Amino acid sequence: MTADYSTQPTATYNSAFLKACRREPVPHTPVWFMRQAGRSLPEYRKVREGIPMLESCMRPELVTEITLQPVRRHNVDAAIYYSDIVVPLKAIGLGLDIKPGVGPVVEEPIRSRADLARLRDLTPEDVSYVTEAIGLLTRELGSTPLIGFAGAPFTLASYLVEGGPSRTYENAKAMMYGDPELWADLLDRLADITAAFLKVQIEAGASAVQLFDSWVGALAPADYLRSVMPASAKVFDAVAGYGVPRIHFGVGTGELLKLMGEAGADVVGVDWRIPLDEAARRVGPGKALQGNFDPTVLFTDKDTVERKAREVLDAAAGLEGHVFNLGHGVMPNTDPDALTHLAEYVHTATAR
Ligand code: CP3
Fold this sequence. Notes:
The chain is of the alpha/beta class. The protein is built from 17 helices and nine strands. The protein has one domain: TIM Barrel (Alpha-Beta Barrel). It has helices at about 10-15, 15-20, 40-50, 55, 60-75, 85-90, 115, 130-140, 155-160, 170-180, 180-205, 220-225, 230-240, 255-260, 275-285, 300-315, 335-350; strands at about 80, 95-100, 105, 145-150, 210, 245-250, 265-270, 290-295, 320-325. The longest helix is centred in the middle third of the chain and has 25 residues, at about 180-205. It is globular. Coproporphyrinogen III (CP3) binds near residues 37 and 85.
């Protein structure tokens, strides 16, 4: 990975989070939480009151405030840009909305070749509010790095083809198996949109990017290799030249970790289903790992949280680079104080 010093201050470049991503020695294990900004925080619920989810993503001052809330509260080592994976799709004019308690819902699912024409390229002007918000954020964040993110082609396709959230992805997978050419063209279109969206975030000042392939664990490795990996690799290749760490995460991906690393990630995210030492064996050398505390443990007591955090840290002891995180996002009913305590425990237990 070539370092690009032009885009970020030295103090940010030398933060524990970015050092761990680069597999350099760190003063303490850095920690942040997927979905750290959002429903678990009362201050978030307050500023979001009466504002629909997608609209909240298009207001730079509000995005800045929401992104900063967990940094202030939990003393985490990185901020993640507040948005949603469907924002770039909305920005190119697709009819979709986020329904409270349901998730992203698409008016007219993408099912045919003619439907692909609705997926036009994304330009920076389509998401000028992102550039503006990241400009505000990097000024406020000081040396705390900002992570930009996007949904990976498979996970975006799962919403677009199904028309909404799904447990089985039957329509998406049927297209993948039954019409591989249409599927490949769909994922390739989504790769271009995703790459353009990540570039906007990096050029505005994001110090790292995470590609969420949350639902790709539904696939067998051979199908991932053939039908998904080329599109994800295209996204990673498109942003390789910036030199910012590229993180890749999905749920239930124990059998896919090696391939997800090979798609072009510098850091591979791991859920709680396999320990990090086993994940490292599967991923192989040259990659940092991120994870993998089970978010439901936060519903127990302090001693249990510390004991389970210790297990994660022990399994990570031999890794070259470790970013402490949950194995998936913060759950809505989580007590925010439990997160603050977990971040503090990781910092104290790993201080060198
Ligand atoms: O905290 C909150 O959930 C409130 C705001 C919100 C987000 N997305 C923020 C978000 C809401 C209501 C959504 C809708 C949405 N989009 C859902 C949840 C549906 C519900 O009500 O339970 C889902 C599942 C999506 C689709 C989506 N968005 C996925 C699959 C991902 C990838 C991360 C994951 O959870 O697997 C996202 C990213 C996302 N949505 C982030 C945020 C702040 C960014 C990443 C992060 O903070 O880690």
